[in-house]
Amino acid sequence: MQLRTGQQVIHLNKTPFVSKTYFKDAERVQNEIWKDIDVRDKTVIDVGIGESTEKLVELGAKVIGVDNDFRKIMSYRKSGIPLILCDFINFPFHRRIADIVVFYFTLHEICPCHHHRALITARKIAPTVIIVEPSSHGCLAYREFARLWRDAMNSVGKFEEYMPAEYWEGIVRKAGFDKTLRKTVKWKAEVPIEVLGNIITATINEWKDMGVGEYYIKKLQEFLKENPRLTWSNIEVIIGKSLDV
Ligand SMILES: C[S@@+](CC[C@H](N)C(=O)[O-])C[C@H]1O[C@@H](n2cnc3c(N)ncnc32)[C@H](O)[C@@H]1O
Fold it and tell me: For the chain, where are the alpha helices, taking DSSP H only?
Protein backbone atom coordinates (compact mmCIF):
# COMPACT_ATOMS: atom_id res chain seq x y z
CA MET A 1 0.00 0.00 0.00
CA GLN A 2 1.44 3.34 -0.89
CA LEU A 3 -1.23 5.80 -0.25
CA ARG A 4 0.05 8.60 1.79
CA THR A 5 3.03 9.51 -0.33
CA GLY A 6 4.35 8.20 -3.63
CA GLN A 7 2.55 7.58 -6.80
CA GLN A 8 -0.86 8.08 -5.31
CA VAL A 9 -0.08 11.63 -4.31
CA ILE A 10 1.39 12.39 -7.69
CA HIS A 11 -1.84 11.09 -9.16
CA LEU A 12 -3.98 12.94 -6.67
CA ASN A 13 -2.24 16.25 -7.22
CA LYS A 14 -4.07 16.32 -10.53
CA THR A 15 -7.52 16.13 -8.94
CA PRO A 16 -9.42 19.40 -8.57
CA PHE A 17 -10.94 18.54 -5.17
CA VAL A 18 -7.86 18.06 -3.09
CA SER A 19 -7.52 19.74 0.23
CA LYS A 20 -4.64 22.15 0.50
CA THR A 21 -4.17 21.34 4.16
CA TYR A 22 -3.80 17.65 3.43
CA PHE A 23 -1.19 18.09 0.72
CA LYS A 24 0.71 20.65 2.77
CA ASP A 25 0.80 18.09 5.54
CA ALA A 26 1.99 15.43 3.08
CA GLU A 27 4.85 17.72 2.11
CA ARG A 28 5.76 18.35 5.74
CA VAL A 29 5.70 14.60 6.45
CA GLN A 30 8.05 13.99 3.50
CA ASN A 31 10.43 16.71 4.64
CA GLU A 32 10.48 15.39 8.19
CA ILE A 33 11.23 11.86 7.04
CA TRP A 34 14.34 12.92 5.11
CA LYS A 35 15.41 15.77 7.37
CA ASP A 36 18.72 14.98 9.14
CA ILE A 37 19.54 12.15 6.69
CA ASP A 38 22.54 13.09 4.61
CA VAL A 39 22.47 11.24 1.29
CA ARG A 40 24.21 13.86 -0.88
CA ASP A 41 26.84 12.24 -3.16
CA LYS A 42 26.29 8.88 -1.46
CA THR A 43 25.64 5.71 -3.43
CA VAL A 44 22.19 4.63 -2.31
CA ILE A 45 20.47 1.37 -3.18
CA ASP A 46 16.74 2.01 -3.03
CA VAL A 47 14.94 -1.31 -2.65
CA GLY A 48 11.44 -0.79 -4.07
CA ILE A 49 11.46 2.05 -6.55
CA GLY A 50 9.02 4.95 -6.63
CA GLU A 51 8.69 8.20 -4.78
CA SER A 52 11.67 7.45 -2.52
CA THR A 53 13.88 7.00 -5.59
CA GLU A 54 12.86 10.39 -6.94
CA LYS A 55 13.32 12.03 -3.56
CA LEU A 56 16.80 10.53 -3.17
CA VAL A 57 17.80 11.88 -6.60
CA GLU A 58 16.43 15.29 -5.58
CA LEU A 59 18.51 15.13 -2.38
CA GLY A 60 21.68 14.56 -4.42
CA ALA A 61 22.20 10.82 -3.92
CA LYS A 62 23.66 8.54 -6.59
CA VAL A 63 20.74 6.15 -6.65
CA ILE A 64 20.48 2.58 -7.88
CA GLY A 65 16.90 1.32 -7.91
CA VAL A 66 16.04 -2.32 -7.20
CA ASP A 67 12.60 -3.79 -7.74
CA ASN A 68 11.15 -7.22 -8.44
CA ASP A 69 8.21 -5.79 -10.40
CA PHE A 70 8.99 -5.67 -14.11
CA ARG A 71 6.31 -3.03 -14.78
CA LYS A 72 7.74 -0.78 -12.10
CA ILE A 73 11.21 -1.07 -13.60
CA MET A 74 9.81 -0.34 -17.07
CA SER A 75 8.05 2.78 -15.82
CA TYR A 76 11.42 4.16 -14.68
CA ARG A 77 13.44 3.04 -17.71
CA LYS A 78 13.73 6.56 -19.11
CA SER A 79 14.67 8.14 -15.77
CA GLY A 80 18.40 7.68 -16.26
CA ILE A 81 18.58 5.95 -12.86
CA PRO A 82 20.49 2.62 -12.92
CA LEU A 83 17.94 -0.12 -12.22
CA ILE A 84 18.20 -3.75 -11.17
CA LEU A 85 15.26 -6.09 -11.69
CA CYS A 86 15.47 -8.70 -8.95
CA ASP A 87 14.00 -9.95 -5.73
CA PHE A 88 16.17 -8.36 -3.06
CA ILE A 89 16.08 -11.66 -1.19
CA ASN A 90 18.26 -13.03 -4.00
CA PHE A 91 20.31 -9.90 -4.56
CA PRO A 92 23.33 -10.85 -6.69
CA PHE A 93 25.96 -8.78 -4.80
CA HIS A 94 27.28 -9.67 -1.35
CA ARG A 95 30.07 -7.19 -0.83
CA ARG A 96 30.30 -3.49 -0.14
CA ILE A 97 28.96 -1.68 -3.21
CA ALA A 98 27.05 1.23 -1.67
CA ASP A 99 26.93 3.67 1.23
CA ILE A 100 23.28 3.25 2.13
CA VAL A 101 20.46 0.77 1.53
CA VAL A 102 16.95 2.24 1.74
CA PHE A 103 13.76 0.24 2.28
CA TYR A 104 11.02 2.86 1.96
CA PHE A 105 7.57 1.30 2.42
CA THR A 106 8.98 -1.93 1.02
CA LEU A 107 9.74 -4.36 3.84
CA HIS A 108 6.07 -4.79 4.77
CA GLU A 109 5.57 -6.28 1.29
CA ILE A 110 8.21 -8.93 1.93
CA CYS A 111 7.36 -12.11 3.84
CA PRO A 112 8.50 -11.63 7.46
CA CYS A 113 10.32 -14.95 7.14
CA HIS A 114 12.75 -13.16 4.77
CA HIS A 115 13.28 -9.94 6.73
CA HIS A 116 16.42 -11.18 8.45
CA ARG A 117 17.93 -12.27 5.16
CA ALA A 118 17.11 -8.90 3.55
CA LEU A 119 18.82 -7.06 6.39
CA ILE A 120 21.85 -9.36 6.34
CA THR A 121 22.23 -8.61 2.62
CA ALA A 122 21.89 -4.88 3.30
CA ARG A 123 24.57 -5.19 6.00
CA LYS A 124 26.97 -6.80 3.51
CA ILE A 125 26.51 -4.21 0.78
CA ALA A 126 26.41 -0.97 2.80
CA PRO A 127 27.35 0.35 6.25
CA THR A 128 24.03 2.17 6.69
CA VAL A 129 20.45 1.02 6.30
CA ILE A 130 17.33 3.18 6.42
CA ILE A 131 13.90 1.64 6.95
CA VAL A 132 10.76 3.77 6.54
CA GLU A 133 7.52 1.99 7.44
CA PRO A 134 3.96 2.85 8.41
CA SER A 135 3.16 2.26 12.06
CA SER A 136 0.99 -0.75 12.85
CA HIS A 137 -1.12 1.49 15.12
CA GLY A 138 -3.57 4.21 14.15
CA CYS A 139 -7.16 5.44 14.32
CA LEU A 140 -10.10 3.05 13.94
CA ALA A 141 -10.63 3.79 10.23
CA TYR A 142 -6.91 3.38 9.52
CA ARG A 143 -6.87 0.01 11.25
CA GLU A 144 -9.90 -1.11 9.22
CA PHE A 145 -8.31 0.09 5.96
CA ALA A 146 -4.98 -1.56 6.80
CA ARG A 147 -6.75 -4.82 7.69
CA LEU A 148 -8.58 -4.82 4.34
CA TRP A 149 -5.28 -4.28 2.53
CA ARG A 150 -3.56 -7.05 4.46
CA ASP A 151 -6.39 -9.54 3.86
CA ALA A 152 -6.63 -8.64 0.16
CA MET A 153 -2.89 -9.08 -0.31
CA ASN A 154 -2.83 -12.35 1.63
CA SER A 155 -5.65 -13.61 -0.62
CA VAL A 156 -3.29 -13.37 -3.62
CA GLY A 157 -0.22 -14.67 -1.82
CA LYS A 158 1.30 -11.25 -1.13
CA PHE A 159 2.18 -9.44 2.10
CA GLU A 160 1.14 -6.20 3.73
CA GLU A 161 2.39 -6.69 7.27
CA TYR A 162 2.86 -3.55 9.33
CA MET A 163 5.06 -4.05 12.35
CA PRO A 164 5.88 -1.93 15.40
CA ALA A 165 9.06 0.18 15.25
CA GLU A 166 10.64 -2.09 17.91
CA TYR A 167 10.39 -4.98 15.48
CA TRP A 168 12.25 -3.11 12.71
CA GLU A 169 14.86 -1.90 15.14
CA GLY A 170 15.27 -5.48 16.37
CA ILE A 171 15.92 -6.94 12.92
CA VAL A 172 18.40 -4.15 12.14
CA ARG A 173 20.37 -4.99 15.28
CA LYS A 174 20.09 -8.73 14.71
CA ALA A 175 21.65 -8.30 11.26
CA GLY A 176 24.74 -6.80 12.89
CA PHE A 177 24.26 -3.03 12.61
CA ASP A 178 25.92 -1.63 15.73
CA LYS A 179 23.98 1.54 16.24
CA THR A 180 20.32 2.32 15.64
CA LEU A 181 18.48 5.63 15.55
CA ARG A 182 14.72 5.96 15.43
CA LYS A 183 12.22 8.70 14.84
CA THR A 184 8.47 8.90 14.40
CA VAL A 185 6.83 11.27 11.94
CA LYS A 186 3.19 12.05 12.68
CA TRP A 187 0.43 12.98 10.27
CA LYS A 188 -1.76 15.86 11.45
CA ALA A 189 -4.34 16.28 8.65
CA GLU A 190 -7.28 13.96 8.11
CA VAL A 191 -7.58 12.47 4.61
CA PRO A 192 -10.31 14.46 2.78
CA ILE A 193 -13.09 12.18 1.56
CA GLU A 194 -12.52 13.19 -2.11
CA VAL A 195 -8.88 12.19 -1.75
CA LEU A 196 -9.80 8.93 -0.07
CA GLY A 197 -12.28 8.24 -2.90
CA ASN A 198 -9.51 8.67 -5.46
CA ILE A 199 -7.14 6.52 -3.46
CA ILE A 200 -9.75 3.77 -3.26
CA THR A 201 -10.43 3.94 -7.02
CA ALA A 202 -6.68 3.59 -7.66
CA THR A 203 -6.46 0.80 -5.10
CA ILE A 204 -9.29 -1.13 -6.74
CA ASN A 205 -7.54 -0.90 -10.13
CA GLU A 206 -4.30 -2.08 -8.55
CA TRP A 207 -6.07 -4.96 -6.81
CA LYS A 208 -7.83 -6.00 -10.02
CA ASP A 209 -4.42 -6.10 -11.77
CA MET A 210 -3.16 -8.36 -9.00
CA GLY A 211 -6.17 -10.66 -9.26
CA VAL A 212 -7.77 -9.72 -5.92
CA GLY A 213 -11.34 -11.06 -5.76
CA GLU A 214 -14.65 -9.15 -5.85
CA TYR A 215 -15.22 -9.84 -2.13
CA TYR A 216 -12.39 -7.50 -1.05
CA ILE A 217 -13.25 -4.90 -3.68
CA LYS A 218 -16.82 -4.72 -2.37
CA LYS A 219 -15.55 -4.45 1.21
CA LEU A 220 -13.40 -1.49 0.19
CA GLN A 221 -16.33 0.21 -1.56
CA GLU A 222 -18.48 -0.32 1.54
CA PHE A 223 -15.69 1.14 3.69
CA LEU A 224 -15.74 4.33 1.59
CA LYS A 225 -19.55 4.59 1.69
CA GLU A 226 -19.35 4.91 5.47
CA ASN A 227 -17.47 8.24 5.02
CA PRO A 228 -14.66 7.20 7.34
CA ARG A 229 -12.67 9.82 9.21
CA LEU A 230 -9.18 8.61 8.47
CA THR A 231 -5.78 9.95 9.41
CA TRP A 232 -2.74 7.99 8.23
CA SER A 233 -0.73 6.23 10.88
CA ASN A 234 2.60 7.54 12.12
CA ILE A 235 5.62 6.78 9.98
CA GLU A 236 8.58 5.08 11.63
CA VAL A 237 12.10 5.82 10.43
CA ILE A 238 14.82 3.45 11.62
CA ILE A 239 18.48 3.98 10.74
CA GLY A 240 21.11 1.31 11.34
CA LYS A 241 24.85 1.98 11.20
CA SER A 242 27.83 -0.37 11.20
CA LEU A 243 30.95 0.91 12.86
CA ASP A 244 33.44 -1.51 11.31
CA VAL A 245 33.00 -0.81 7.58
C1 LIG B 1 4.91 0.32 -1.66
S2 LIG B 1 6.08 0.29 -2.91
C3 LIG B 1 7.22 1.54 -2.39
C4 LIG B 1 8.12 1.95 -3.50
C5 LIG B 1 9.04 3.16 -3.25
N6 LIG B 1 9.96 2.95 -2.19
C7 LIG B 1 8.29 4.44 -3.11
O8 LIG B 1 8.62 5.23 -2.24
O9 LIG B 1 7.37 4.70 -3.89
C10 LIG B 1 7.00 -1.18 -2.59
C11 LIG B 1 7.87 -1.60 -3.75
O12 LIG B 1 8.72 -2.66 -3.32
C13 LIG B 1 8.82 -3.61 -4.35
N14 LIG B 1 9.18 -4.90 -3.73
C15 LIG B 1 8.40 -5.65 -2.92
N16 LIG B 1 9.06 -6.75 -2.56
C17 LIG B 1 10.28 -6.70 -3.15
C18 LIG B 1 11.40 -7.59 -3.16
N19 LIG B 1 11.40 -8.74 -2.49
N20 LIG B 1 12.50 -7.22 -3.88
C21 LIG B 1 12.50 -6.05 -4.59
N22 LIG B 1 11.47 -5.19 -4.61
C23 LIG B 1 10.37 -5.51 -3.90
C24 LIG B 1 7.45 -3.60 -5.00
O25 LIG B 1 7.47 -4.12 -6.30
C26 LIG B 1 7.11 -2.11 -4.95
O27 LIG B 1 7.54 -1.45 -6.11
Answer: 6-12, 20-34, 51-58, 70-75, 115-125, 140-155, 165-174, 193-210, 214-225
